Automatic annotation (TrEMBL), chain A:
<dbReference type="Pfam" id="PF01547">
    <property type="entry name" value="SBP_bac_1"/>
</dbReference>
<protein>
    <submittedName>
        <fullName>ABC transporter substrate-binding protein</fullName>
    </submittedName>
</protein>
<keyword id="KW-0813">Transport</keyword>
<comment type="similarity">
    <text>Belongs to the bacterial solute-binding protein 1 family.</text>
</comment>
<keyword id="KW-0732">Signal</keyword>
<dbReference type="InterPro" id="IPR006059">
    <property type="entry name" value="SBP"/>
</dbReference>
TrEMBL record, chain B:
<comment type="similarity">
    <text>Belongs to the binding-protein-dependent transport system permease family.</text>
</comment>
<dbReference type="InterPro" id="IPR035906">
    <property type="entry name" value="MetI-like_sf"/>
</dbReference>
<dbReference type="InterPro" id="IPR000515">
    <property type="entry name" value="MetI-like"/>
</dbReference>
<feature type="transmembrane region" description="Helical">
    <location>
        <begin position="76"/>
        <end position="97"/>
    </location>
</feature>
<protein>
    <submittedName>
        <fullName>Sugar ABC transporter permease</fullName>
    </submittedName>
</protein>
<feature type="domain" description="ABC transmembrane type-1">
    <location>
        <begin position="72"/>
        <end position="283"/>
    </location>
</feature>
<feature type="transmembrane region" description="Helical">
    <location>
        <begin position="154"/>
        <end position="179"/>
    </location>
</feature>
<keyword id="KW-0472">Membrane</keyword>
<dbReference type="Pfam" id="PF00528">
    <property type="entry name" value="BPD_transp_1"/>
</dbReference>
Amino acid sequence: MGRRFASLLVPGLAMLLAVGACRRASEGASEQAGRKRLVFKYQPLWGAPEPFHELLARFERENPGVELVTEALPNSSDLAHQFFLTSLEGGANDFDVLVADVVWVPEFARAGWIADLSEYFPPERLRADFFPGPVEAVVVEGRTYAVPWYLDVGILYYRTDLVPRAPRTYEELQRFAREAMAKSPGVQGYVWQGRQYEGLSCNVYEALWGHGGEALAEGGRVLLDTEPAREALAYLRGLVASGVSPETVTGFSEEEARRVFQEGRAVFMRNWPYAWSEAQKPDSPIRGKVGIAPLPTKSGEPGWGTLGGWQLAVNAHVSPERRRLAAKLIAHLTSPEANLVLALNYARNPPRPSVYDDPRLRAGDPFIANLKEMVERARPRPVTPYYNLISDVLQSEFSAAVAGLRTPEEALKRAQKQVDHLTGEGE
Amino acid sequence: MSGGGSLERERRQAYLLVAPAVLVLVGVALYPILAAVWLSLHRFILVFGERRFTGLDNFAFLLSDSRFWSALGNTAYFTLVAVTVELLLAVPLALLLNRAFPGRGLLRASVLVPWAIPTVVSARLWAWMFNPEYGVINRLLPGPDINWLGAPGYALHAAILVDVWKTTPFVALLVLAGLQGIPEDLYKAARVDGASTWRMFRSITLPLLKPALLLALLFRSLDAFRVFDAIYVLTEGGPANTTETLSIYAYKTLMRSGDFGYGSALSVATFLCVVVLAAVWLRLLGREEVSR
């Protein structure tokens, strides 16, 4: 009987042991050969893999004895965040370099999950070499916690055949849209992202900056209930209520907006640079009829697009030696040469201004080269460790205001109350 | 004497045989539940890097949290409407499938297709169909375009529709099994007595179907109360949290905000609601069994 019991238990235990042994064996094997493993967790870059693999292979050639292992993350930013939340909180040290969305760096730094890289990448040097927005997003309390890898920015797309030029003010945008809608029935004015998710927050921040506001006050307090914020929400709600934007934008994310625009059914669209290559495909009905511009503002000066994109950071749980090696890999992957490889092969915007002036970029992808002005003005969302803690609250209140369920005043008051509750006690 | 000994041995053997299964259950079911309860008694927000015991503070806050109550309301509404509609549709569907007609096997199989598609896939499918600008539903329906997933009044109903589409076949199958357990003789006798079809349905089919219906009610309402995937894919809880259910609120609090203490309290509250619901149904089911 005891034996029978054992016969049931033994295979299970054996399996557990085997799994453990395998892990240990693989670690041991690489150490025996005198090779150091460096694990890089990143999200797949769309496009042919060869140029990127060549970039990684070059690092291995320049650092003999290092074995570079890449591991893919889920493509959704939310899922990747969930992965890091659970594994880094659990002290995982089976990866060295990780890619972080622009809003995660302060959170991860505060939680002690990513290493201080100031000795390898002093903030002053980052400021000299990179655009100001991304540097602001990775430097927390004067220390560098990540290095910008590639970036994204919110821009305005417009139909060159329907409007005389790109609008500079909100008033112009609405007037141009109405005139074009009157001339071509069935075409909508302005499509953007109004669904309850992070993309809506980006649209709201852009309107906030365009009305002269800031989302973060002195001392790092997240301040929402302000006059520019009320104006921004009233502007966005007004677009929907007045019919310049279809009511359906309250259910739109990036792709919904892009499809409507791409079918030739909208005059203006707010979106990220990725929509450009789709619009210029040979079978696109709007090919050759699309222009890009900075987002409009209340005053008419070029607008500030939300900064998006990814940064490279080092897992704080790995040994100092691996940390040093990881910093070396980051330096390699964020070099001007690497920026160029990513821009030319994967249409990823370089975070270094100098790369935009490189003749190879101008010859290879003039669209990216033309983005320089907008990338320069890209602004990060509130740089605070609490960003993910509060963004959920913001999304639901912004959504309520845009859908007309609450007035901007009410929505902002409610949001401010909840945010203060969430962050208040942690100070 | 020796017989008793062998019985005793058999009993011990039985315990030993189920022991691995019990151990696995304790590991994968009981431990996470207890861990969630333990976490729910803490203030544990990842970015603050602190973890301290606060007793029932999270639950006290939960009672005053309007977002919790609206999520509970959405969940209850979703469950009530979806399960009611599913039962109302499933009974005629099962009666139809129970009849003998050519092609019945094929129909029975094809009815199950929606249920066989993974929820995330079917929800994505429906999200495209609901798309107000280029989705097929607005093209098929007369009248002005409806903003299915972006308008506060519509989004939750759109989600209910997706759930009804997906799980009605499952309920119909349960009802069908119940129908097939009713002896044909009862109908023959009723026919001899001159009972109408309606009378036979009311006096024979429905009472004898009650256990199957209650079982379907139990399965479906517990399932609907935990709804996450379909709604998450369709709306992520928007617009303005009008489709946010308890599971979605708990997920967002845990995994996006990194507020493990309060997120666990929300999970525990959801768990308690499901337990209460299950207890109520099981009591009803049990009484049904006794009265038979």
